[in-house]
Amino acid sequence: MNARVRLPVHTDQHAPSYYAATVNRRIECPPLAGEEKADVCIIGGGFSGLNTAIELAERGLSVILVEAHKIGWGASGRNGGQLIRGVGHGVEQFEPVIGKDGVFQLKLMGLEAVEIVRQRVAKYAIDCDLTWGYCDLANKASDVEGFREDYEELKGLGYQHELRMVPKEEMRSIVGADCYVGGMVDMGSGHLHPLNLALGEAAAAQSLGVRLFEDSPVIGIEYGPEVRVRTAKGSVRAKTLVIGCNAYQNGLNNYLDGKVLPAGSYVIATEPLAPERARELLPQNMAVCDQRVALDYYRLSADNRLLFGGACHYSGRDPQDIAAYMRPKMLKVFPHLADVRVDFEWGGMIGIGANRLPQIGRLPDQPNVYFAQAYSGHGVNATHLAGKLLAEAIAGQHSNGFELFAKVPHITFPGGKMLRSPLLALGMAWYRFKEALSG
């Protein structure tokens, strides 16, 4: 095997992923130095922070965003690049808190979230390889029944995009493998280059007057009617603060830190494949995802690499060799790729909440401090929705969506940092055991 590009444990540069190797723009963002002032200060230069900044600037507010590393350094610039409808898992569980209509509105917002991405890419002419087409893959018959329920529900919500059930005998028109018993195609979801999307949104924010500062870790926050955010070389005073650090809280705020579990997710990218070989794998160039607890998700890149991801880790420990860990999973689906080189391997942390609903709200004791985090694997679309809802609330516009999300309580993971990851890892192992028993 040829040498692979591997992800260092800590870096102030982007993880040397396929995405970092194929960025199509650079943006200039100096470190914060000296005293600055704005209507709103945002901590975090991922999709949450960038889209909140764009939405606020479009509403006429002055915004400063500070990022500890580089724009898109975290999950926003490293994820699988899948843009899939929906927010949360099993949102019916929240009916006692927000009512039937609230659940209905959450489901509609799960569709709106993808449309926000579609519109933002179009409005600001962002080149991010946006491609439409996605398929849920069934591992067993009960998955197919679940898809049928999803199909009927989406139709009932007035979903405007093509949906179709794919029987087992037609699955090779979607995936060149024999391990799935059916699927559901959704042409309103798709895939993209997430780092190029983040950088394009950063450029859009700058064009609206947002001031972006990189390499500026926050070392302290002074709360009050006016918030002061301090870095090593500067500070920002603002009427309102937004914290959008997700899995990379690093103790910034204890309340938020305890409600999100950082979980590792990993991706490999093969060498570029001949076009005909790439189309044997995914004949319609769709993004796909299976239904297992330790799920597989994969797609083709614009230059015909297979990007294969999954293996969500709750232990807090990354595999020593990501490619050695992920390659057997890829070969289980596509054994005929044994001769294919892996050119890139990388990982990063996604934020998981206990109830799997994005956490969007404000601090209970600080009404001018807002937050968004814990997207549980649906971050590409849900972050864009969060930005819109936060901006509506901050700008004083009535936001029924913000109020719905803010009503849902979120538990603090027990055991603190030392115990919460092992406890959840044990729980997920139990779910995998039950999944294996169910066949």
UniProtKB/TrEMBL annotation:
Keywords: Oxidoreductase. The keyword DNA-binding does not apply. Residues 39-392 form the FAD dependent oxidoreductase domain. GO terms for molecular function: oxidoreductase activity. One of its GO terms (cellular component) is cytoplasm. InterPro entries: FAD-dep_OxRdtase, FAD/NAD-bd_sf. Gene3D superfamilies: D-Amino Acid Oxidase, subunit A, domain 2, FAD/NAD(P)-binding domain. Transmembrane segments: none annotated. It holds the Pfam family DAO. Its EC number is 1.4.3.-. This is Gamma-glutamylputrescine oxidoreductase.
